[in-house]
Design brief:
Radius of gyration: 24 Å
Largest sheet: 8 strands, mixed
Number of helices: 19
Bound molecules: 5'-O-[(S)-butoxy(hydroxy)phosphoryl]adenosine
Distance between the termini: 33 Å
Strand content: 15-25%
Helix content: 25-40%
Number of strands: 32
């Protein structure tokens, strides 16, 4: 916790924020979380009011807004059609070829969603059916998700970069009968053959009856006349036309499945539901990013991950904002693509991942400095701890030092932010912030006893939250075992953290990636942060390797700036740098210079792979590896 610098909020700006007196709200919401959540839920539409905010009689299987009926689509789309937002832009989409632009007002979004829902209805999709969506970042992924939700069906979005094997195992697990895909997707100027992957993935499927194919890249693809249907052909049929009612469902009705990797075993299907999820996501986006009607919100995440679900699709639409979606990558064809789009579309709030920031930092300030980024007013970070160097660069170079940067800690499981700041709070580079309103977090030792401030421990959440997952689909026992058994009544996040004297939480990383060196506990993130603070280092990964004397020895993989040659001298310099900037006990024993680090598609460094490589072992399941 070497980072003491605080960024105090600008008092003039605080006046304009939705939440000015966060201290009072924090205190009140923690005293009576249910009253607080009831108030939040009342901002949204329910066709039948709930009678109980939280039923925890069957904990850890919590139920929220019990007795209520609603639909997340009623709140994302339908309710906006009744007021001035009807003709407001709901979605701006820009293709990798940026001359391709598609925009949709809320009115147009509704038309598209109704059409997709009509097509799904004609294929027999109804309440509770699981629909697999394997689409790139194109508007149809939004339409398809909302169409499923509208009908009370359950979507299972699979990131359109997963292999055929990963796709088929997820389809089999969810027993999905329908897959929605595209002919292909654009990846850095080339076509990635999505349809071919689907063909391979569903070839032996016992459940898939229909595949809907959206025309995107336009190349020829094989179509099975029995199984495959072009989406535009279906839309031309009479069945696609006409109004489609939004089905009102129970608050606890399932909304989606999302497969995510655990520390062991096969991917687990996180299950989210309509009522609580919609309240949690709406509240968190509104408070943390102070969403306003005139905002153009850009979340760079892919819809295949939870960040895309909660804060690219559902959150901004619940808030009635304009959500911006870009098909391509940040560095193609030039490393200023994102900055160019921020300038061109007047993006006001920009939410991305530290890994992207670090990779763009590599190209230097010249790229962003050529663009006018003055439309930005708030920045956000998610997915892994943001090291202070990247935090400062993002804050200073992209945000011009004037945009508060919200570091949001949460998980696929939690559905919504759990630890973050709101813009009126003082900020600390590298600290995620404080538990969200209505939530309390705790750092405990192995026995579950709270540790003193400044001490590392296991991060637990004390309260259930409305947007939390309800279970692991098909695996209730694993749900209990993984999250709720070790410290009954509290949620085990799997992360290590420390709380400081101001009540801010500093996330260290996953507990499975904490290194114990000579009995001292060190976070990979801390070592990496120290290395990255060196001017020659762009990225670094630290792992623990077995060591006879110390228990674990620290082994690091270092990515240097493009113009710097590795060598013994630099190696020594970096060791000393870590000793100096973190602690002598954190001095790396081994160091390897590499061009790239293996990462998951959501940008997390795969230390497991590094560890296996360093030990000459089998690298295991690589389906989530980016390259
Ligand atoms: C894990 C959850 C939900 C966002 C996308 C990742 C790490 C997430 C932060 C942050 C430090 C973070 C944690 C967490 N994480 N956000 N702001 N600071 N660490 O979701 O794939 O379910 O991963 O990501 O380790 O447990 P996920």
């Amino acid at each position: 916790m070497s980072e003491k610098t605080m960024y105090e909020p600008d008092p003039g700006a605080v006046e304009t924020y939705r939440i000015r007196d966060w201290q009072t709200l924090e205190e009140q919401s923690r005293k009576d979380p249910q009253a607080y959540w009831a108030e939040q839920a009342a901002e949204l539409q329910w066709s039948k009011p709930w009678h109980t905010v939280l039923d925890d009689s069957d904990a850890p299987f919590h139920k929220w807004f019990v007795g209520g009926r609603t639909n997340i689509v009623t709140n994302c789309v339908d309710r906006h059609l009744e007021g001035p937002r009807k003709n407001k832009l709901a979605l701006i989409w820009v293709g990798e070829d940026i001359s391709k632009v598609r925009t949709f007002s809320y009115f147009a979004l509704n038309r598209e969603v109704e059409q997709f829902a009509n097509v799904l209805t004609a294929m027999g999709v109804g309440e509770g059916d699981v629909v697999t969506i394997y689409l790139p970042r194109i508007p149809e992924v939004v339409f398809a998700m909302l169409a499923c939700a509208k009908l009370g069906a359950v979507h299972s979005v699979i990131f359109a970069g997963y292999s055929a094997d990963a796709l088929s195992s997820r389809i089999a697990d969810s027993k999905s009968r329908i897959v929605i895909t595209a002919d292909g997707s654009w990846v850095n100027g080339s076509v990635f053959p999505l349809k071919d992957i689907v063909d391979e993935g569903v070839h032996f499927s016992a459940t898939v009856e229909n595949v809907i194919v959206v025309r995107n890249t336009g190349q020829d693809v094989a179509m099975d006349p029995e199984r495959d249907h072009w989406y535009h052909d279906l839309c031309a049929l009479p069945i696609a036309r006409g109004r489609c009612e939004t089905v009102q469902v129970d608050s606890e009705h399932p909304l989606y499945l999302l497969y995510t990797s655990g520390s062991t075993g096969s991917p687990k299907a996180i299950l989210h539901t309509h009522g609580g999820y919609m309240v949690g996501v709406h509240t968190s986006l509104k408070q943390t990013f102070d969403i306003r009607d005139e905002d153009r919100w850009w979340c760079t995440a892919d819809p295949g991950w939870v960040t895309g679900h909660s804060y690219l699709v559902y959150g901004p639409l619940l808030a009635g904002a304009t959500t911006f979606m870009y098909e391509g990558s940040p560095t193609y064809p030039h490393p200023d693509r994102w900055w160019q789009l921020i300038e061109h579309y007047g993006i006001t709030t920009f939410y991305t991942a530290p890994t992207a920031i670090r990779s763009l930092m590599r190209f230097g300030e010249a790229w962003p400095s050529r663009r006018d980024l003055s439309s930005l007013r708030l920045l956000g970070s998610v997915g892994e701890p943001i090291n202070p160097e990247a935090w400062r660069w993002f804050h200073q170079v992209i945000g011009g030092g004037r945009c508060p940067l919200m570091d949001t800690w949460w998980q696929t499981e939690t559905g919504m932010f759990q630890i973050t700041t709101v813009p009126s709070m003082p900020l600390k580079p590298g600290a995620a912030g404080r538990p969200v309103f209505g939530q309390e977090a705790e750092v405990v030792d192995e026995e579950g006893n709270p540790v003193p401030d400044g001490t590392e421990g296991l991060l637990l959440l004390k309260n259930p939250a409305p947007a939390m997952f309800r279970t692991l689909y098909n695996d209730e026992q694993r749900f209990i075992d993984t999250y709720w058994s070790r410290f009954p009544g509290r949620y085990l996040t799997g992360d290590a953290a420390k709380r400081d004297e101001d009540g801010y939480f500093w996330i260290i990383g996953r507990t499975d990636d904490v290194i114990k060196v000579s009995g001292h506990r060190l976070g990979n993130a801390e070592i990496e942060s120290a290395l990255v603070a060196h001017p020659e280092v762009v990225e670094a990964a630290a792992i623990g390797l077995p060591h006879d004397v110390k228990g674990s020895a620290i082994h690091v993989f270092v990515v240097l700036r493009t113009d710097r040659e590795p060598g013994k001298e630099l190696e020594e310099e970096l060791r000393d740098h870590v000793a100096k900037h973190l602690s002598p006990i954190a001095k790396p024993d081994g160091m390897e210079f590499v061009d790239k680090l293996p990462k998951t598609r959501s940008g997390k460094i795969m230390r497991r792979v590094l560890r296996a490589r360093a030990l000459g072992e089998d690298e295991g399941d690589l389906t989530t590896l980016e390259e």
